[in-house]
Amino acid sequence: MRKGLILRSFFLIGICIYLSGLVLYSAMFLFTENQSPTFQIAKIFLAALHSMVMILPVYLAQSPRLILKIVGYVSLTTYFLYIFFLVGFFPYFGFVPELYTFGTANAADMSEVLEHYFKQIFGYRELLLLATGAVLIYLIPRNRLSGRALLVLLLLPLALFSTSVYKFGSPGASEAFGNETLVRRFGLTGFSYISITEWLNLEGGYLGTETAFPGKVAELVFPNREPAEPLVSLPQNISRVILIQIESFDPEAIEAKLSGIAVMPFVTDLRNKCINYTNFFTMKAAGGSSDTEFAVATGLVPSLRLPSLRHADFARVETVYDSLLSAGISSRFAHNNNAGFYGRNIAYNRLNVAKADFQNPNETIAEHIFAKKALAASLAGSEKSFHYFFNFQSHGPYQGYSDSTQEKYSIGLNPGIKTDYLATMSEVDQMVAALFSMQRAGFDKGENLFILTADHPSRVHSTNDTISPFRIPAMICHDSFLGTVSSDVFGTIDLHPTILEAFGLASGRKFLGSSMFQSSNNAVLLPQGRLIYKNSNGKVTSKACTEKCSPFVDYTDQHILLQP
């Protein structure tokens, strides 16, 4: 009888812990085309064995000693809270945050983000984790583990750790593959060890030591690439560049229909006057949405270790705003969220070379009104200017649409996330149309360049491959471009040299990226250590990049302050 109870406790407690790991790793796994789905699913089941290390705090929670019991329960609670967070965070932001990004300096920004992404993605995984955690807490005092059961259950993750080390080296060596890969291979224990060790060993005022300029990203893949050729004839009389960055903007949304009605008719028609980039990719690291702004401002690959925009030392890097100001060109940034998400409001105050408009906490005006007020301020002067507006309405949970839009598309109760998203994008389309109309006179004269892009896709259209979660729309519009299509690979760091070239300021400068007005073999480096490029067959593909890519990330980290 006693033996049966031991086996029962061994099974029930073990299956609860394993199930928690299975939920976590299924949320973090990105399927690829080069392996069979069955083999990749098997990887998830194998990786979930890492979670079995949590049998140790279970054993402590069953101890008669109060202090050990408290340690055990606190450890389990922390574990479930953390993986609950990761199950939501990783699919939405695309990376696993280092533990030291949760410092008090980022607490307010993180709380603002959590409010939105938990509403958007709270689904069956989160519910399953809550149920699993509750069952485990119920079982712990009722099913005592023996020392033998503890040893057997601990051997499973230890065996997996040992094979991972044998195949991939130490956790520190594996870190070069990206921190989400480290979690998959070594589990949260290995990741936490590396993250805490790095945190304790951080020295000086910067994340990285000073390094030399590493060159262009494209040279990592195409060291002997042919000289670039003009994609279009670049206008010589550009006096204004207007960049509109759309939150959570999918390429599929442009031509989508809802209830048989076009969702974004204005943007669809606008493409006839633009260079339309079909392979344009975003980069998200520790700063989420603000990483796009960091890449535009600096032309650097965002850091995986701290939110780059908030922690950047702008005194050590020449931003696009610095370059424009030195040529007598004013800049204005506008975002109607006063909290600033990852401290962008703090960053622009430190930047001090671009005017920044953030909606006052007491203001309740609609975003399209705020957007028009900000653009009107840029258009009011006669001098050359760069205007950068980042919209917020289409941030999750994608329910920021009016009753009239609901009626227009015959939307019922609880329509689903994709319907909510497309309805919201319909109103974003109207806002883009209004902003374009405001500057139409200069556009028709050939004096204005109008750029439309995104911070990241929504993921409501994403497929299970390694590229789709980073592909976003990008359109550079001018009266003379006439619907040009470019399938060359570009990314957000390429906007930096492109904006400067539009004003005739790019000559002789060093850029990691390339001008989007040129056609060439280009590549995009994701902060997670992957390169996206076109292979010899013209297919867009990606590959892991470790040692050769480190100098590019290191080059960013030398500008990121530990305590801004």
Structure description:
- This protein has 564 residues and is an alpha/beta fold.
- It contains 20 helices and 16 strands.
- The strands form four sheets. Strands 2, 5, 6, 7, 8, 9, 10, 11 and 12 form a nine-stranded mixed beta sheet that branches. A three-stranded antiparallel beta sheet has the order 14-15-16, with no helix packed on it. It has a two-stranded antiparallel sheet with strand order 1-13.
- Helix 3 packs antiparallel against helix 4.
- The longest helix has 28 residues.
- The mean pLDDT is 87.
Mean pLDDT, all residues = 87
**How much strand?**
5-15%
Structural class: alpha/beta
Number of strands: 16
- Terminal residue distance: 62 Å
Q: Could you give a short description of this structure?
A:
This protein is an alpha/beta fold. Helix content is 44%, strand content 13%. A hairpin with a 3-residue loop joins strand 14 and strand 15.
